[in-house]
Amino acid sequence: MAMAAPAMRMASSASFLPRLLPPTVFSASRAQVLVRQLSLPLFPNLNIAIPVGISLGLPSLPEVLEGIWEGILKAVPKKKTSHMKKRHRQMAGKAIKDVTALCVCPACGGMKRMHYVCPTCASRLKGFLHQEAKAKEEAQAEEEVKAKTK
């Protein structure tokens, strides 16, 4: 029984720590395991080693995060960005460009885009086609009326 106590002390202070921590974090020179020795009144020859704390010699978490946390707090906006400002930012440099490829329509003399139908001539043609369609409908209606009267 007396042999078990030193082995347990070795196991608790040296062998379990490298298994818990990755090799890059664990360094045997900086790591310390605080162990409390207990002896039970019923078994005076039996000593038990209980790990109380582990010290790795690394800087504490608040010290590490202090610089990072200050940067995060400064980056938080104080107010919501309005829809107008957000759209101005998103649409910057995407404005509608001026049309430079213009020419004179040979039929009516108005301005039109190159390789496109002149809008003035297109509206005149559309009106003319509507007039012809109405004339055909009226002619068909008259023929139907004549056919019914016969």
Main traits of this protein?
single chain, 150 residues, alpha+beta, two-stranded antiparallel sheet, two-stranded antiparallel ribbon, elongated, transit peptide
Structural class: alpha+beta
> How far apart are the termini?
132 Å
Arithmetic mean of pLDDT = 75
Question: Helix content range of the residues, please?
Answer: 40-55%
Question: How large is the radius of gyration?
Answer: 46 Å
SSE pattern, N- to C-terminal = HEEHHEEH
Q: Tally of extended strands?
A: 4
Summarize the structure.
Helices cover 47% and strands 15% of the residues. It contains four helices and four strands; from the N terminus they run H-E-E-H-H-E-E-H. The model is unreliable at 1-14 and 24-28 (pLDDT under 50).
Question: How would you sum up this structure, described in words?
Answer:
The protein is of the alpha+beta class. Among the domains are: 4-58, no CATH class; 103-149. Helix content is 47%, strand content 15%. It contains four helices and four strands. The protein has helices at residues 4-20, 61-74, 83-90, 119-149; strands at residues 32-39, 47-55, 102-104, 111-113. The strands form two sheets. A two-stranded antiparallel sheet has the order 1-2. A two-stranded antiparallel ribbon has the order 3-4. Strand 1 and strand 2 form a beta hairpin. The radius of gyration is 46 Å and the shape is elongated. The protein starts with a helix and ends with a helix. The model is unreliable at 1-14 and 24-28 (pLDDT under 50). It is found in: Mitochondrion.
